[in-house]
UniProtKB/TrEMBL annotation:
<keyword id="KW-0813">Transport</keyword>
<dbReference type="InterPro" id="IPR005828">
    <property type="entry name" value="MFS_sugar_transport-like"/>
</dbReference>
<dbReference type="InterPro" id="IPR020846">
    <property type="entry name" value="MFS_dom"/>
</dbReference>
<feature type="transmembrane region" description="Helical">
    <location>
        <begin position="40"/>
        <end position="58"/>
    </location>
</feature>
<dbReference type="InterPro" id="IPR005829">
    <property type="entry name" value="Sugar_transporter_CS"/>
</dbReference>
<dbReference type="InterPro" id="IPR050814">
    <property type="entry name" value="Myo-inositol_Transporter"/>
</dbReference>
<dbReference type="GO" id="GO:0016020">
    <property type="term" value="C:membrane"/>
</dbReference>
<protein>
    <submittedName>
        <fullName>Myo-inositol transporter</fullName>
    </submittedName>
</protein>
<dbReference type="GO" id="GO:0022857">
    <property type="term" value="F:transmembrane transporter activity"/>
</dbReference>
<keyword id="KW-1133">Transmembrane helix</keyword>
<dbReference type="GO" id="GO:0015798">
    <property type="term" value="P:myo-inositol transport"/>
</dbReference>
<keyword id="KW-0812">Transmembrane</keyword>
<feature type="domain" description="Major facilitator superfamily (MFS) profile">
    <location>
        <begin position="45"/>
        <end position="300"/>
    </location>
</feature>
<keyword id="KW-0472">Membrane</keyword>
<feature type="transmembrane region" description="Helical">
    <location>
        <begin position="83"/>
        <end position="101"/>
    </location>
</feature>
<dbReference type="Pfam" id="PF00083">
    <property type="entry name" value="Sugar_tr"/>
</dbReference>
<dbReference type="InterPro" id="IPR003663">
    <property type="entry name" value="Sugar/inositol_transpt"/>
</dbReference>
Length: 300
């Protein structure tokens, strides 16, 4: 066969749409497509963890209806009413410090702690017989709100597949709002019940108890396991997240990427905030957070 004939044959093969051409990346792409699909376990895990977000919304919203009754129950002055409402936010300031413990303690342990705090706060408020006890209960609940608002989004993002991580994190924001709406419904439901305000506060302990009982059976995030050198635990967690269809090669790739990200984060400094690629997004985020509070939505 002449050189020209070989050239013509190769061109015809390239242009033939029905000819199967081997692509060394095709298998990897198909496999990756399967591996980015989360398992049912992931969705159930996220729902359980997001109970913290639900309680965040519930405990910040329930006071608007309960205050109508407790102001007469304890003969509260305007200042005392302001303290009862603002106590949760005050407690949340200190609860937010738990965010710094994510590098020292396992994420699900911190979620369990927030569950216990929510349960304790709900019981204190529901059983309170004085303004002081009610105020303490609101501060305790605020601690839970602060912990949940810092820990839950991080835990969810670390346990979510990359392809749906944004959607699952949005779920946490959604349940916060749902918690506020549910609180308003409970305000209406117990408004005509004798000492109904106690039920309004106490009912928050039920989802917190559910979360407390379920969380010990959930895995630590792969990122946390890699950070402390428990690679076998990280592999097991990734296997649960993506299912049995994933390959060992994919799992090892995930481990390497997580490890690289952990080292990159540890090498970061506060000077990175001043970098032009980070500074403006930081300012925009702070403005949006401030505007959200200044609009008075949480004062409803």
């Amino acid at each position: 066969m002449s050189v020209n004939e070989k050239t013509e044959k190769s061109k015809s093969e390239e242009l033939d749409p029905h000819k199967e051409v081997f692509d060394p990346h095709e298998e990897h792409l198909d496999n990756s497509e399967k591996e980015t699909k989360a398992t049912f376990f992931v969705y159930m895990l996220v729902v359980c963890v997001c109970v913290g977000g639900f309680l965040f919304g519930y405990d910040t919203g329930v006071i608007s209806g309960a205050l109508v009754f407790i102001k007469d129950e304890f003969d509260l002055s305007n200042t005392q009413r302001e303290l009862v409402v603002g106590a949760t936010t005050f407690g949340a300031i200190f609860g937010g410090f738990f965010a710094g413990l994510t590098d020292l303690a396992e994420g699900f342990i911190l979620v369990i702690i927030s569950s216990l705090v929510f349960i304790a706060g709900a019981l204190i408020m529901a059983l309170s017989r004085s303004f002081a006890a009610l105020l303490i209960g609101r501060i305790v609940v605020g601690l839970g709100v602060g912990i949940a608002s810092m820990i839950v989004p991080v835990y969810v993002s670390e346990l979510s597949p990359k392809s749906i991580r944004g959607r699952l994190n949005t779920l946490n924001t959604l349940v916060v709002t749902f918690g506020q709406v549910f609180a308003y419904v409970m305000n209406i439901a117990f408004s005509r019940v004798p000492e109904g305000w106690r039920y309004m506060f106490g009912i928050a302990g039920i989802p917190a108890l559910f979360q407390f009982l379920i969380m010990p059976f959930l895995p630590e995030s792969p990122r946390r396991s890699v950070a402390i050198g428990k690679l076998d635990d990280a592999r097991k967690a990734i296997r649960k997240i993506y299912g049995d269809s994933v390959t060992d090669v994919f799992i090892e790739q995930e481990i390497r990427m997580i490890n690289d990200d952990v080292h990159a984060c540890r090498s970061g400094t506060f000077k990175d905030f001043m970098h032009k690629d980070n500074f403006m997004p930081l300012i925009i985020a702070c403005i949006l957070q401030a505007a959200q509070q200044l609009c008075g939505f949480n004062a409803a």
